[in-house]
User: Which sequence fits this backbone?
């Protein structure tokens, strides 16, 4: 009987390994950048085209490789990082399994140029699908250059699973940011389709964070520094008022390696206890240094998860250090019993008495004095020769403190009412309230007007009677459906109207968020947004949709960016659908909001005027009906 188990050919084994190592162009970027860092490079360039689908090239000025190492590095399980099994527990480098280059070469056209500093000539190797095409001697600068072209050219099924260029570029951007943040002492340059995306000179941690995320990041950062026997914590956390809806700017680095840890993330959230709004996520950039023998890195294929020996101690130290930093920089509220010096009385006012204002009244002034004597007064207030009273005031002239105004004299105050017909008062057009007592508080018309057709229950549901019984509407889901169809109609058929802002809004975002906004700008303009200007780190909005207030603009865009973290749809209709859903979710009335009777009626009428009122944009029911028969069954004995 023949054997059924056989060894796989090398090219097949490499393709299987590539399925685990290389998932998308960002995976190639990660492996090549980490190899450049391990080569002690001080200047690294990343060049990609078509989001890495056509080209991923990494150029460094590291140590380079000899001719033998250049050929051997493409073999499986060939590595310079470890020599024995014990080395796995004291790793200080990035890659160590020796599968990356072999896997990448199995599914792409690969070109490598490398040269060591002490050598005069370098090595130029070309590989296509694990097959060596050529190996030549070439004149090259010090360092190594890897160029990966036509990714998944021999596996079209894997290539079809790649997302749009925008989505793949965002993943490449994420990997570049993680490596650049972990190594601020290295000069990084990033080019995409010939355009420079980043140029990050060697600097400190704060300068590197600000250089990558730009905007007003510098004023958001609160430094964290704690050194103990088991861990050294450095980095920054952001102030609570700058918390976001998404979890984009959250970075943990353990021994200069990016990791994901829900346990440590919970420690950070616990340090912000009482400082964050519901659903908000703080940004942080934390660098942890622990002894290499206390962690296990090789528990995940992408090495983004690490197992710690004493997680509880790390949790407590991290939480306490962040809480201490927030309190030290007056971000968290503290008890302060010191007296504020600004509330003390100034020294030169301490012994002074308050001056009581004086009032002078002329007791001889009579506004009803007969004005036949033609009294005259000077600016000083003294009477002329014809004055009999000697007073500085008279009925014929309103004079005070040098001010004189001439008025027409009147004979007496009784003359003001001469000729007034008393009957005209009775025929006045004004209606006076009578005190007639009615039999009821409201008349019939008022009772009919005051009858309410809808009722709100627990500020969540709206109940409206119908012929067969009653309908119960979920106010939040119903409003989402109404807004969703309205936004979708404006983006596909009608041009939405905008309200111009008196003062344009300046909103700052990171570079990757600005890339998403540039992609979404045409669709956002159809909803009513007017973009006056767009820079590398901020946008200027001069007009907003009529159903959005100025204070909601940043929340709407932030929610939209959060919803699009998993990728922008390739087709324009799907993109408009995503935007309409996100804006409807942001602007819909929330559970717990009080609605007036008119607002309830408008919401119910608007819901049943929709094309599909039964479900919300997120495929959840918007209302239920209860028949009278169903209610009768509840009372049946």
Assistant:
């Amino acid at each position: 009987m023949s054997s059924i188990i056989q060894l796989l050919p090398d090219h097949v084994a490499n393709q299987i390994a590539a399925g685990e190592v290389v998932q998308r162009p960002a995976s190639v970027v990660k492996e090549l950048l980490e190899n450049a860092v391990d080569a002690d490079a001080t200047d690294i360039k990343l060049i990609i085209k078509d989001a890495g689908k056509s080209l991923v090239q990494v150029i460094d000025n590291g140590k380079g490789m000899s001719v033998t190492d250049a050929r051997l590095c493409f073999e499986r399980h060939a590595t310079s990082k470890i020599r024995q099994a014990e080395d796995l527990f004291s790793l200080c480098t990035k890659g160590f399994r020796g599968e990356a280059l072999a896997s990448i070469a199995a599914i792409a056209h690969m070109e490598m140029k490398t040269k060591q500093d002490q050598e005069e000539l370098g090595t130029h190797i070309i590989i296509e699908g694990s097959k060596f095409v050529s190996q030549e001697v070439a004149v090259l600068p010090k360092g190594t250059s890897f160029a990966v072209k036509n990714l998944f050219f021999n596996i079209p099924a894997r290539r079809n699973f790649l997302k749009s260029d925008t989505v793949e570029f965002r993943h490449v951007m994420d990997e570049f940011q993680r490596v650049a943040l972990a190594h601020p002492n290295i000069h990084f340059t990033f080019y995409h389709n010939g355009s420079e995306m980043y140029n990050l000179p060697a600097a400190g941690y704060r300068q590197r964070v600000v250089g990558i995320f730009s905007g007003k990041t510098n004023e958001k950062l609160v430094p964290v520094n704690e050194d103990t026997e088991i861990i050294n914590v450095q980095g920054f956390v952001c102030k609570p008022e700058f918390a976001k809806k998404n979890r984009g700017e959250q970075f943990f680095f353990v021994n200069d390696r990016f990791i994901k840890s829900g346990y440590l993330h919970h420690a950070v959230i616990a340090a912000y206890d009482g400082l964050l709004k519901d659903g908000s996520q703080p940004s942080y950039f934390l660098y942890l240094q622990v002894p290499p023998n206390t962690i296990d890195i090789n528990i995940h294929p992408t090495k983004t998860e690490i197992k710690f020996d004493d997680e509880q101690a790390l949790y407590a130290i991290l939480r306490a250090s962040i809480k201490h930093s927030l309190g030290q920089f007056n971000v968290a509220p503290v008890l302060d019993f010191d007296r504020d010096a600004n509330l003390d009385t100034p020294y030169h006012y301490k012994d002074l008495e308050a001056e009581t204002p004086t009032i002078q009244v002329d007791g001889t002034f009579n506004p009803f004095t007969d004005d036949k004597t033609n009294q005259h007064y000077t600016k000083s207030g003294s009477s002329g020769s014809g004055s009999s009273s000697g007073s500085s005031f008279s009925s014929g002239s309103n004079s005070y403190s040098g001010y004189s105004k001439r008025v027409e004299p009147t004979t007496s105050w009784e003359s003001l009412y001469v000729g007034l017909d008393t009957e005209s008062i009775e025929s006045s057009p004004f209606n006076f309230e009578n005190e007639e007592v009615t039999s009821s508080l409201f008349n019939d018309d008022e009772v009919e007007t005051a009858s309410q057709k809808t009722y709100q229950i627990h500020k969540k549901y709206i109940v409206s009677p119908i012929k067969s019984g009653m309908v119960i509407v979920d106010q939040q889901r119903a409003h989402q459906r109404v807004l969703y169809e309205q936004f979708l109609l404006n983006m596909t058929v009608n041009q939405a109207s905008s309200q111009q802002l008196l003062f344009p809004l300046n909103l700052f975002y990171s570079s990757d968020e600005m890339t998403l906004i540039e992609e979404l700008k045409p669709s956002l303009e159809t909803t009513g947004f007017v973009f006056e200007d767009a820079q590398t780190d901020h946008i200027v909005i001069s007009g907003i949709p009529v159903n959005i207030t100025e204070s909601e603009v940043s929340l709407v865009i932030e929610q939209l960016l959060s919803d699009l973290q998993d990728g922008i749809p390739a087709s324009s209709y799907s993109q408009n659908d995503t935007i309409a859903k996100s804006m409807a979710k942001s602007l819909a009335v929330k559970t717990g909001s009080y609605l007036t009777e008119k607002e309830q009626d408008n919401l119910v009428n608007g819901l049943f005027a929709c094309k599909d009122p039964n479900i919300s944009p997120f495929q959840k029911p918007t209302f239920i009906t209860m028949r009278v028969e169903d209610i009768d069954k509840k009372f049946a004995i």
